[in-house]
Amino acid sequence: MKNFLLFLPMLFLLQFNAAGQDVIRLQSCNDTMISRQVDSLKQLFQKDGLQLLKEASITMESEYEMPVVVPLNKGTWYQFVFIGDYSSRLYEVRMFDWNEKQVIFQQKRWGDIDGNIISYGYTPEQSEFYMMKPVQVNKKKKKNLCGYVMLFKKVN
Fold first, then answer.
1. DSSP 89
2. What is the pTM of this model?
3. pLDDT digits (tens, 9 = 90+) for 68-85
4. Distance CA 142, CA 156 (A)
5. What is the CATH number of the domain that holds 54?
């Protein structure tokens, strides 16, 4: 009975502590313009012999990175694509290896020809997990920005 009386307050404290933490959850979004761009890019890359490995629509917040972790194999050629909300003014993607060394940095602005799309190829020097961190800056919409990420692999 004594153990039960000690257990009850601890359980209450744990529940109170867990409820007070803000958790960022990955949520999908739907944007018809981005969906058309996604479909076009999928067709284009598949014609070039690339296989789609992963894709996700993500709800983002302006000026906050959305980390995407993927395992990549040494010597394999990969194509990473990020598509941001068309109304954003700045788009960036940084990619880091497992040792947190930045291996890719790309930035686009709204006025660029393909401004809301960042696409780059990468061949890892070793097999490990890599983290891509896409971010977009939007002065009018601070929350609920739609983004889309895709990872392709070159098929022999």
1. S
2. 0.80
3. 999 999 999 999 999 999
4. 42
5. 2.60.120.380
